[in-house]
């Protein structure tokens, strides 16, 4: 019988370092950033044009790029399958940190790089 090795997390703060380890390959993270950017572009386009059918493409585009990054570069199973809500939040936290150039784990204790 296979042992369930799914780690349980009691908070997002506890989950996020695990999430970053699962996204250690820069090309995988880049695929996430591309997907997130396209999601925002689709949202803006749908609202500006009021063509709401474009909203259907959001999960396909967002998850499609992220999952390709995992399968092609990271060679692991996306955290979405085990922790869907924390993973969704972590995607956007990682994206915001990327935009601010402050990805967690890239600074030492003093705050310098």
Question: What share of the residues lie within helices?
Answer: 55-70%
Q: State the secondary-structure class.
A: mainly alpha
Q: Summarize model confidence as the mean pLDDT.
A: 88
What's the N-to-C terminus distance? 46 Å
Strand content: under 5%
Could you say which overall geometry the principal axes of the C-alpha atoms support? globular
Main sheet: strands, sense, barrel: none
Number of helices: 4
H/E element sequence: HHHH
C-alpha-based Rg, rounded: 16 Å
DSSP strand tally: 0
Low-pLDDT runs: 106-113
Describe this structure as you would to a colleague.
- The protein is mostly helical and about 110 residues long.
- The protein contains four helices and no strands.
- The N and C termini lie far apart (about 45 Å).
How would you briefly describe this protein structure?
The chain has 113 residues and is mainly α. It has helices at 12-21, 26-49, 57-74, 84-100.
Question: What secondary-structure arrangement, pairings included, does this model have?
Answer:
Elements: H1 12-21, H2 26-49, H3 57-74, H4 84-100
Helix pairs in contact: 1-4, 2-3
List keywords for this structure.
single chain; 113 residues; mainly alpha; 4 helices; 61% helix; 0% strand; globular; disordered C terminus
